[in-house]
Design brief:
By secondary structure, this protein is of the alpha+beta class. It is built from twelve helices and 19 strands. The chain starts with 9 loop residues before the first helix and ends in a 23-residue tail after the last strand.
Length: 461
Amino acid sequence: MTSSQEELLPGTRRALLHRIAVAQAEGRAPSLVAAVVRGGRAVWHGARTSVDGHGPDETVQYRIGSITKTFTAVLVMRLRDEGLLDLGDPLEKHLPGTGVGEATIAELLAHTAGLAAESPAPWWERTPGTLRPELSDVLGEHPLLHPVGRRHHYSNPGYTVLGALVEELRGASWEEVLRSEILEPLGLHRTSTQPNAPHAGGWAVHPWADAILPEPLEDLGRMAPAGQLWSTTGDLARFAAFLVAGDDRVLSAESVQEMRVPAAPAEAADVLDGTAYGLGLQIQRREGRLLVGHSGSLPGFLANLTISVEDDVATVVLANCTSGPLLGAVGADLVRIVAEAEPRIPAPWMPLREVDPAVLELAGQWYWGTNAFALRVNADGLLALAPLTGSGRRARFRANGDGTWTGLEGYFAGELLRPVRRADGDLSHLDLGSFVFTRQPYDPEAPVPGGVDPEGWRGIR
């Protein structure tokens, strides 16, 4: 085993086992394996199987389908971080002649490039990749179904194009780049494009009878960047830890965090369901918890990777059946079980190492018009702005080194916060993206846009 089962309480372990046992039995899966990650490493593995004898463990490979897309997205983000492309670049700049070149790299990553969901017939998941040897065979004669950038429309060909982009800029096959830039640095030695023993076989389960049928295992060829990979709960547990904290050998924590931010316009149904898509990662709100990750499926296999960054819990669930257990729900439930039974213990509060009087002077209560805000100086060196009561615009700000600060999130993301001083050096107000924040509501001593009535505040006459 790769981790100590004792790191979770007995009651938690039993609840996790019960959940996957119910999923395997009610979902009629030939086998189902799962893992829980906390604190950057696997702390629990579980398995249920219909086969007598030795059950699958964290070293047994399953096909993970579209979780492959997250690996491809990481490769593209590496190219961005190296300055070889910009996410706003049109595809045509780097990979000309595809017929979808007006779509940007970011739009391809977020499935907003307008491409079709699937390649032209026959069904690519159950036929040899040799039927689609060229990118044009994957895209077909009419690859665009929607205006570029207007809506989220999941596209397997879109990630095939991104794989071709990686090959073009690296001068090597997608598989070679994947192995050298992600799998080897992260120690994912049981993740591969072809099955390596021990591995599970893929099965179809009859919808109306307890009978099974073997599914064909096809090499997807050109479509590999969209869904080819085989992996294990052990390897995907390590990959989940990377998607939380980053790894400078592969991708920085800042870039991984960027992948977890919604990047696609939400459909009305998505708003109701609380789902979104980032850059190679699915995002959902479930029972008040923000979850990121990806699901995957190919004939004979189902896969799910779910992460709650706030709870510091990630889960991996794999099964070898075409349909059956709803692994997204199982993964979310495993996160919930651990988060509720053994909530994350926060790090000890620590004071600032150094206190800059000029920064400390900014702390306290401020008013935008009559709206009251608090500005705090945090130990991480950031300023945090939040309304004193209720909901409202809030953001953290990073120092620029010249006395100004840049917003990191929300309404004020990218906006400049500038402390403004009077001629005598005293602090007058804060200028935040043209908004004037004052120490008193509509302070007559500050340059409030539109001015302040000279008679000041009054009662009803």
